[in-house]
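REVIEWER CHECKLIST
Item 1: Sequence provided? yes
Item 2: Single chain? yes
Item 3: Sequence as submitted:
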Amino acid sequence: MPIKGTKKEKRQYEKIKQSAKKSGKYKGREKEVAARTVMKQKSKKKSSGGSSTKKKSSGKKKSSSSRKKK
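Item 4: Structure as written out by the authors:
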């Protein structure tokens, strides 16, 4: 795993790597599988965005006649 990463990500990496070794499912690829899994989780977290910047909705729907037609 790259040196960059949070403590949580490093813990996750180590746990996944040990689990993969124990299961024997990914012989010789434990490090790769662990790193890919952690990075995949990181990208999902990043792409979901933050809720603090969420735009508030007025709750009112526009009628079809008030919408502009293209």
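Item 5: Key structural point noted by reviewer: Helices lie at 7-23, 30-48.
Item 6: Recommendation: ____
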